[in-house]
Amino acid sequence: MAGGSAFTPGRLKSFALVLPLALVLIVFVVAPLAVVLAVSVFRYDNFEVIPAFTFENYASVLTSHLTLSLYLTMLKLAAMTWVCTLLIGYSVAAFLVFHVRNRLVAIGLFLLCTVPFWTSNVIRMISWLPLLGKQGVINQALMGTGIIHEPLQFLLFSDFSVVISYVHLFTIFMIVPIFNAMSRIDRSLFEAALDAGAARWQTVLWVVLPLTKSGIVLGSIFVVTLVMGDFYVVKVMSGGRDASVVSAMYDDISTLLFPHAAASAAVLMIILTVMVAAILRFVDVRKELVSGR
Amino acid sequence: MSAPVKISADRRGWPFYALGAVFVAYVVFLYGPMACIYLLSFQGPQGGLSFPMRGVSLHWFDQLIEQGDTGDLMGALSRSIPLALIVMGLTVLISLAGGLAFRRNFPCSGLLFYLVIASLVAPGYVLSIGIGLMFQLFGLETNWYTSALGAQLSWTLPFGLLIMFAIFGRFSRSYEEASRDLGANQLQTMWLVVVPILLPGMIAVALFGFTLSYDEFARTLQTTGSTNTVPIEIWSMTQNVTSPSIYALGTLTTGLSFLVIGVSLGAIALIQRRRLGSIAGRG
Fold first, then answer.
1. How far apart are CA A59 and CA A64, in angstroms?
2. Chain B within 8 Å of A24 (Cβ-Cβ)?
3. Which end of chain A is more exposed for a tag (fewer CB within 10 A), N or C?
4. Residue of A120, A226, A267, A271 to mutate, testing the B interface (most B Cβ within 10 Å of its Cβ)
């Protein structure tokens, strides 16, 4: 990458400016992940890595039925969450960008969607409990109006409640990148499409959708990785019935099975990297994020 | 909704009403549940975890704070707030510097960019385990102001940097050139020209830095040592407290978040209004 003289004054200044960022990321992201890898392939005893190479940890992670069922559960939940957040996120972003005519109002409504993101996720998750429970608001309302005669059981401690919580927590990660991509669309393209005889659905399909692809891709990466890396939503909202890949790691750590947790973490990282790399084939994220408009 | 209407400049078509309905439903979905637990936290002493409300009182706040329904709420606050403030300050400074640097290409800038993205999408708990193990291996003690601070920066910096990218995308370099032409040195240009122009964006970064740190859970769990932060306190309450005092804690901590959000957004709005005032006539 470093072509020509690497130490021009301009470059030195750039290096100095990114040094703190690079240091934090190396010490608190790269090094810890390297430690996880190291602990996963070496024997580990009494808080010390013994340099004796072993694949035992991986063998035990990869051959366990639990691992497979955990990943299947999480992939299913990620897929359901992805579909819901994409549909809601796209509609909300489209409403704000294309249908609210006053810019200040649009910004205000956008902030309205963003504010909960700045509050506690754990609290937002448990705020569903009084609504979805057997004696919860929804069941009481449905019974009160006579639509149902027995409380619906599937509302709480089910895949339903888990996905509801994910959608509640993560839709904002879909809205923001799509909102961004839509805001950059040149409005005269719509007139051009209209003049060329395109119907409304054709304009959406052939103009808006391709131009918001990057936003969809970014949002999808966020939502999928957030669900796959989830710690507590599955556990709490399934009533302890299900576990997530990550909460299983927590159980390992609690019983001091560090190497097993590390191997499991490495497997998760590899799977996520492959998933993200696959999604990234569709768009150049760097161009999208750094160069702005 | 009604039948499709022809697109025209001033008539609202059916997509407006359809998407508007989705938007309203989403906002209700977003705030409804939260509003429920705030309401439920003000129940009388007979109250349970669900509606109907049984009386109105501050009983559960009293339980929470005076009776110590949590392990150590005040201790957790006395760590979480300073930690959030430190993370906020560092996030603003490091993101600003990073944003300035990324305006040019420099060797390894691509690698560093993908590292930022990796830091954002990596599962928080995996990083938490890694940092915890790393400290153990080097014989260091994990603590909220060392390991947890670093762990939280790995979460807040990507947000800060992405916001800075968006801000610099709209920032014209000619301001800096003009400042230099007028004889300002680099430091003066930075402090008297660049920072004031970027101030609203930096407040936004600060808001993210504070709130993301204050609510961070997974990355902090294995890195904060034997002393808890507020989210971990809440988490342990979800495991063993089945009274509305957990809602009271939710109301308290969300109140604090709303305060920070209000102050930040208010400050940004104030700056923007002043600017509009001082260049009256220009939209």
1. 8
2. yes
3. C
4. A120
| DSSP code string of B154-212 | HHHHHHHHHHHHHHHHT--THHHHHHHHTT--HHHIIIIIIHHHHHHHHHHHHHHHHHH
Q: Which of A12, A25, A90, A171 to mutate to test the interface with B (most CBs of B within 10 A)?
A: A25
Residue with tokens 């990355």: B219
Q: List all residues 6 or more positions away from A45 whose beta carbon is below 8 Å from its beta carbon.
A: none
Instruction: Give CA–CA dist B246/B248, Å, rounded.
Output: 5
What is the extent of the structural domain holding A19?
1-54
Of B33, B118, B253, the CB nearest to A127: B33
Same domain, A88 and A124: yes
What architecture (CATH level 2) is domain B71-240? Orthogonal Bundle (1.10)
- Cα separation of B200 and B203, whole Å? 5
Of chain A residues 51-80, which have a CB less than 8 A from chain B?
none
Domain co-membership, A128 together with A213:
yes
Q: Is the pLDDT of residue B281 over 70?
A: no
Q: Are residues A66 and A139 in the same domain?
A: yes
Average pLDDT, chain B: 86
Q: Annotate B19-32 with DSSP letters as a single string.
A: HHHHHHHHHHHHHH
Same domain flag for A197 and A245: yes
Rounded to whole angstroms, the Cα distance separating A148 from A27 reads 56
H-run or E-run covering A110: helix A103-114
Both A29 and A149 in a single domain?
no
- Cβ(B129)–Cβ(A33) below 8 Å: no
∠ CA A111-A117-A120, nearest 5°, is 140
In this predicted structure, what is the pLDDT of residue B136? 87
DSSP B107: T
User: pLDDT tens digits, residue range A19-43?
Assistant: 999 999 999 999 999 999 988 888 7
Report the alpha-carbon distance of residue B44 to residue B60 in Å, rounded. 8
ipTM of the prediction greater than 0.90, yes or no:
no
